[in-house]
Amino acid sequence: MTASVAFIGLGVMGYPMAGHLANGGYTVTVYNRTTEKAKRWAEQYSGRWAATPAEAAQNADIVFACVGNDDDLRAVTLGEHGAFATMKPGSIFVDHTTTSATVAKELAAVAAKINVAFLDAPVSGGQAGAENGALTVMLGGEQAAYEAIGPALNCFAKMHRLLGPVGAGQTAKMVNQICIAGVVQGLAEALHFATHNGLDANAVVDVISKGAAQSWQMENRAHTMVEGQFDFGFAVDWMRKDLGIVLDQAKASGCHLPLTALVDQFYSQVQSMGGGRWDTSSLIALLNRQN
Amino acid sequence: MTASVAFIGLGVMGYPMAGHLANGGYTVTVYNRTTEKAKRWAEQYSGRWAATPAEAAQNADIVFACVGNDDDLRAVTLGEHGAFATMKPGSIFVDHTTTSATVAKELAAVAAKINVAFLDAPVSGGQAGAENGALTVMLGGEQAAYEAIGPALNCFAKMHRLLGPVGAGQTAKMVNQICIAGVVQGLAEALHFATHNGLDANAVVDVISKGAAQSWQMENRAHTMVEGQFDFGFAVDWMRKDLGIVLDQAKASGCHLPLTALVDQFYSQVQSMGGGRWDTSSLIALLNRQN
Amino acid sequence: MTASVAFIGLGVMGYPMAGHLANGGYTVTVYNRTTEKAKRWAEQYSGRWAATPAEAAQNADIVFACVGNDDDLRAVTLGEHGAFATMKPGSIFVDHTTTSATVAKELAAVAAKINVAFLDAPVSGGQAGAENGALTVMLGGEQAAYEAIGPALNCFAKMHRLLGPVGAGQTAKMVNQICIAGVVQGLAEALHFATHNGLDANAVVDVISKGAAQSWQMENRAHTMVEGQFDFGFAVDWMRKDLGIVLDQAKASGCHLPLTALVDQFYSQVQSMGGGRWDTSSLIALLNRQN
Amino acid sequence: MTASVAFIGLGVMGYPMAGHLANGGYTVTVYNRTTEKAKRWAEQYSGRWAATPAEAAQNADIVFACVGNDDDLRAVTLGEHGAFATMKPGSIFVDHTTTSATVAKELAAVAAKINVAFLDAPVSGGQAGAENGALTVMLGGEQAAYEAIGPALNCFAKMHRLLGPVGAGQTAKMVNQICIAGVVQGLAEALHFATHNGLDANAVVDVISKGAAQSWQMENRAHTMVEGQFDFGFAVDWMRKDLGIVLDQAKASGCHLPLTALVDQFYSQVQSMGGGRWDTSSLIALLNRQN
Ligand SMILES: NC(=O)C1=CN([C@@H]2O[C@H](COP(=O)(O)OP(=O)(O)OC[C@H]3O[C@@H](n4cnc5c(N)ncnc54)[C@H](OP(=O)(O)O)[C@@H]3O)[C@@H](O)[C@H]2O)C=CC1
Ligand SMILES: NC(=O)C1=CN([C@@H]2O[C@H](COP(=O)(O)OP(=O)(O)OC[C@H]3O[C@@H](n4cnc5c(N)ncnc54)[C@H](OP(=O)(O)O)[C@@H]3O)[C@@H](O)[C@H]2O)C=CC1
Ligand SMILES: NC(=O)C1=CN([C@@H]2O[C@H](COP(=O)(O)OP(=O)(O)OC[C@H]3O[C@@H](n4cnc5c(N)ncnc54)[C@H](OP(=O)(O)O)[C@@H]3O)[C@@H](O)[C@H]2O)C=CC1
């Protein structure tokens, strides 16, 4: 007997993730705020769609969500017609949204009262990773629940790992974003400097990407940064949302993130340039502008 | 007939580099300011040592140098008993020191007058790379000279490339160091944050090093950073020397490096903590201190 | 006939402010969460105390508040037994707490429904200003309400001004805190540099405080900064609360505050040193530490 | 008998300073690289001009200089036809240029050999201060020499003070510039924030300039910053020269100046916008740009 699952939020990430679950043999019922997308998905994957999260969730063994932010997640779980209204005892809620650890803990507490396990499970790998089923999933929650959803995660993830109690997945994702802020700003300054000093930046990158300066961003973004192409990838607006969460948690936990705080302000300047939807590598545009 | 070469500066880097040349069949005459080290080298590699750079250089087809900084390089080339006093027309001077591009251009101009080709050729890969013959060499200068020394470079480098006219090698090395400044500070903040928020930082690194946050530093330094071990690697004092060169060239060329300038000041604080000889990954020590 | 007023929150600031109103001839009823302080105040100033904000506010023409943060303010206004439960139509609520502009607008909207005018009125001048009746008050709200409370403000303020609609007072206070962040960090670096370079920092300050480097902080804090004395003044914990509000509003309004964001992180480091209650001038302690 | 003095460098600052000396009764011989300016000065003040620094200095009791930077100062003292070639034993050299402390110490040592006293004496107060005879002078050197030139300084300074041995004047000037960097960036962020949030920035400044956020820059530059007027005052190019000196000395003395280093990079961005000759308050232009 195949498990019945629900998927809430068919955005850039959720749509293909739900698709991989359907292709993997799961009986999937989807919910999306904009119904049109849910219908299209149901047609494409021969699945079902529901008019509310509550309806989608009601017979599901696992309910997945991948929506926008903390408030969006509260809406689809606790709101009127939210998933928690109908989830059955013993079922599991898996949140793939990037949110604060606070909301994860808050919802896990509510879920516990109705005997539902909650796993925070933010992903990395971007649109391409979602489409190719090659995401990385960082999880927080109980081991038993994690093991139960392992086969489902395998449908769209090349790597997943339980990193601690509820909130640990979100906190790990924050660690990921902090690293990226430093790497990208450093790379942006380096390429700005290379170009202004007459080097063939691409040639230099080929050489230095063999050593201690190497990074995923260097291998995957340096060439487009040199070209000034940013119309793809992980949007600055999303990055600012994530860094906002990071800086709040840093404050609450007594951590100091001087570079992250500074880069967050630089991203604010990218937004003012009209780059809210540009890839995070667009930090270089600030350095290169002349007026 | 094997080529005769000289090697000036038998420090952490130069000693093994000169050794690889000897092992590769070159007739090597070394010079080192502290003679004791030159004698030891000559014994170990059955080579010769000279009392001055001029003496070491006088019959050499190629003269290599790897000393400390701009002034040191001027001393061993232009100084009394410097290599330029005796180098023969048609020979090649290869500088492996990390210096400014300015001194490279200055020395190349002097060398040209005595018909000596000058190549700036800073390296990356550290002590281990030098010992294992696995350095990366970034070069600036003339194509013909570069081609002529290629076989010699192969003795200690796994990768080398001509990146432009004289100075291009040094400028490329600066690009490398700018990248590292950003990567390391970002990683330091990320690991500081992970630990303070109760995560197993090593486990998180295992997961996120598969994606967009990945870097050489993450793969090779995160674990020691978490342990607070810094007694190895590329020293903060060297890094500050290099970042000083970077910031000077940025100013001269109208580039803006806000992150690099800031991280340079953080390294100044590491020096005040007594960390001048620590690895560059010691930036995390600043974030973790409590008093 | 003298006006009847209420004062909610008898902390470091509120206690003497309420006292000046009593001394100025107002009939004052105070409320404080910790009742002991309210009783002490009532005795000292021959005033009255109430057990709840609602009770204190019920016959008042003006209700003043000076509590801790946004949530505290919501508690004493909207909470059970909050002031809004009993305030009479035509009365005025004046908030001297430093809060977000958001909460000011939110409460003004609620107050409007019960025909109560709301003025946000954060102060500067510190404990000394409150005790000496020499505060500066920055206000947001309606002109008529502002004029009505002018005589009362004169009891404890040497300067007050209406700067725009509701929220304008809080936003002006944020402008104030941003300026301070820059001034203090610059001054801290300057004095750290002066001392490390063998100057008599106090003598230098005497000279440069006549020109373009002059600031209130230089005239009032440089000497104690040089001594390393921080057990007075405006606490780092309060400053971080305020800068958190600033950075949130900057984000919401598309402003970029790189220096402010960075200094906020430095204050986080002061907190880790145990300096949460130190004066904001303690930023210099970070620069001076050696371990 | 009135003293004979020489003045080298008739720029924006030197021209009126030399004029005040002439008006004060000194017999002044001027030198300027561009002779035209020297002739004009001699005519305007009925003084004398010389074709070289050596010629100007040869009978002088005091030789003043106010040229551009370290190298310029070396040129007019040590260079061929430099002042040190002819200065008489027992005379005094007073340098009003803003330079490094290093060059001050270097020249003082050379001067000592010819029995000339050297005082480093950078000024603040800008063009207006020079024209109105209201400069502040920060001095380093011997007490006796300082006392001997006091009456001359009074011609153009409203305040002067000996702050320590040679170099102390320059170091004090650096302290001044560090303060300004912090004040101006903080003020720029504050005004950017005020305007973007709908406040009347001038009104806010009027209010907050009575308290802890007050600064000379706020009182003298806020209004022009709000207007975006920068075509006056102390040029960004000069500020970058000065901050370069500051950061070099910080490095040499083991000081940490994170904010100063960062603001220096922001000034680099102002230069790229074409603002090299704008007043230092132009940092706000970076925050306000939208493209
Ligand atoms: N260590 C590393 O991991 C890396 C270093 N580099 C760069 O390589 C260069 C050398 O580094 P490293 O080998 O570690 O340094 P060391 O300090 O170990 O060696 C420096 C060498 O230069 C000689 N030297 C210094 N000054 C003079 C002088 N004025 N006259 C003559 N000889 C002089 C020293 O002689 P003596 O023995 O007498 O002191 C010694 O042989 C530096 O520019 C460094 O930035 C680049 C990549 C990695
Ligand atoms: N201190 C200063 O120099 C300056 C302070 N400010 C601002 O003024 C405000 C007050 O500061 P300050 O007086 O120093 O603070 P204190 O901590 O001394 O006093 C805070 C007051 O608020 C009361 N309070 C806090 N939370 C609640 C709540 N939830 N319900 C009821 N009462 C509550 C406290 O009651 P209890 O006595 O029971 O704890 C106390 O009376 C803050 O917003 C601060 O940022 C502005 C300028 C200068
Ligand atoms: N302007 C200001 O507001 C302030 C300036 N300062 C400092 O004062 C100094 C002078 O500034 P300012 O008067 O504005 O500068 P200007 O550029 O107006 O004048 C510079 C003067 O130096 C002369 N000069 C420059 N280089 C040489 C050289 N190599 N040989 C001979 N003469 C030379 C110039 O001669 P020529 O006429 O031939 O070009 C000119 O007389 C600087 O160090 C500056 O940082 C300090 C406080 C305020």
Sum up the structure in keywords:
homotetramer, 291 residues, alpha/beta, Rossmann fold, 2 domains, six-stranded parallel beta sheet, 13 helices, 9 strands, 52% helix, elongated, binds NADPH dihydro-nicotinamide-adenine-dinucleotide phosphate, NAD(P)-bd_dom_sf (chains A, B, C, D), oxidoreductase (chains A, B, C, D), NAD(P)-dependent oxidoreductase (chains A, B, C, D), NAD (chains A, B, C, D), 6-PGluconate_DH-like_C_sf (chains A, B, C, D)
Protein described:
Chains A, B, C, D: This is NAD(P)-dependent oxidoreductase. Chains A, B, C, D: Belongs to the HIBADH-related family. Chains A, B, C, D: Residues 5-159 form the 6-phosphogluconate dehydrogenase NADP-binding domain. Chains A, B, C, D: Keywords: NAD, Oxidoreductase. Chains A, B, C, D: Pfam families: NAD_binding_11, NAD_binding_2. Four copies of one chain form a homotetramer. With 291 residues, chain A is of the alpha/beta class. The first copy, chain A, has two domains: 4-165, NAD(P)-binding Rossmann-like Domain (Rossmann fold, 3-Layer(aba) Sandwich), CATH 3.40.50.720; 171-288, N-(1-d-carboxylethyl)-l-norvaline Dehydrogenase, domain 2 (Orthogonal Bundle), CATH 1.10.1040. Chain A has 13 helices and nine strands. In chain A, the strands form two sheets. Chain A has a six-stranded parallel beta sheet. In chain A, strands 7-8-9 form a three-stranded mixed beta sheet. The longest helix of chain A has 29 residues, at 168-196. The mean pLDDT of chain A is 97. Chains A and B meet through β9, α8, α9, α10 and α11 of A and β9, α8, α9, α10 and α11 of B. The structure holds NADPH dihydro-nicotinamide-adenine-dinucleotide phosphate (3 copies). One NADPH dihydro-nicotinamide-adenine-dinucleotide phosphate binds at residues 9-14, 32-34, 37, 66-68, 72, 75-76, 97-98, 123-124, 126-127, 234, 238 of chain D.
